[in-house]
């Protein structure tokens, strides 16, 4: 991770196909484009690859989340339950469609704690939005049971977990809709892009229209299209789809490398009894973009990070607890409800109440968690060296702690 580490002639070839005709738009220009439809081709590839009914490409993962929520009919006043550990895009999309984000704790899966989800349900709850963080899965069986019981929609933010699986199904294809990001740091990248997948034809028709100004795409040309509902422009371009196409075809190669490097690093860290690992509900389905692990205390974790920094080997070891994008602790703009325009009263009220909310259960987990990003270009020797250096640093920090105790 990320996929750009292995850019090659394949991406260049796909882009050149598009430049041969110069038709950079995904719709229309049927004659001049001479049969080149990279976006359509990539959508078909996604359906085949993920074994799902429909795929709609859009301009980003954030646009994918917004388009998915809109297509599921989520709007003003509806509550969407999502985790405190995610990326800001998840709540941005909820706010964009006028809905209210309801944040709940994560457990050691680093995804939604189903018990916390249950406690957060109100008569206004319309959707549960698990986020499959760092390449691995939320507890989909438990969440689907809750959705069935309370008649709720399930929208999977699988933006970080393209190619991941849960009990034989691809992440993103299990709920009513699921989203992916192909931004520059994801496992498959096209610079900027995203996709929504679904098995419902009705939802797909709405995704298709919403992401292109409400066009029904049934006219003889774009000007003749009807607009059955109000949409927006979240279109992807043919250049982005071209790169995405080359990258998706390399997914199996990426997964094989990541799994190998992940296993090697994990077995080195496993030699220390003080190191524990994230709960992975279906290890086969983990895409292994990160190795997520815990130390026994926040103090030890912070001491280790300081040690890694001092040794110049901190890079790639993510401490989400202090991260500005990924964990609620640092989202002051959200907690202060600082938007450019007016939010709805319900949104404003929910956001301003976040400051007093108790997420100590998540704090206890996230404050001890380090995620080590897995490289596609690491050699076996380099992986070994990285692992051994981390192990030595942990030993040093823990023995210092013991001496102080
Ligand atoms: C990357 C990401 C997104 C949004 O993707 P962009 O393509 O950058 O807009 C949404 N959710 C999660 C969890 C992400 O990691």
Care to give the gist of this entry?
The protein has 405 residues and is of the alpha/beta class. The protein is 40% helix and 13% strand.
CATH architecture of the largest domain: 3-Layer(aba) Sandwich
Question: Over all CA atoms, what is the radius of gyration?
Answer: 22 Å
Order of helices and strands: HHEHEHEHEHEEEEEHHHEEHEHHHEH
CATH topology of the largest domain: Aspartate Aminotransferase, domain 2
Strand content: 5-15%
Q: Biggest sheet: strands, sense, closure?
A: 7 strands, mixed
Assembly context of the chains: single chain
CATH class term of the largest domain: Alpha Beta
Q: Quote the distance from N terminus to C terminus.
A: 40 Å
* Total helical segments: 14
Q: Count up the domains.
A: 2
Mean pLDDT: 97
CATH evolutionary superfamily of the largest domain: Type I PLP-dependent aspartate aminotransferase-like (Major domain)
Write down how many β-strands occur, each being a DSSP E stretch of 2 or more residues: 13
Identify low-pLDDT runs.
none
Sequence of strands across the biggest β-sheet: 1-9-8-5-4-2-3
Shape: globular
